[in-house]
């Protein structure tokens, strides 16, 4: 799920760059891309995967 959100943020950052849209200082292309990279790193680290490694159930 985090990877899908990261991909959407990368696409938004690409649209901001490609269309040359001016935004305020918070929603710049670089900030959106960094948020996407953070979400992608969390996805690769296993955060939010839904799998619990607590042990086997019998």
From TrEMBL:
Membrane-spanning intervals of the chain: 34-53
Keywords of the record: Membrane, Transmembrane, Transmembrane helix
Keyword Membrane in annotation: yes
- What is the superkingdom listed in this entry's lineage? Bacteria
Protein's name in the database? Uncharacterized protein
Give the organism, scientific name: Streptomyces rameus
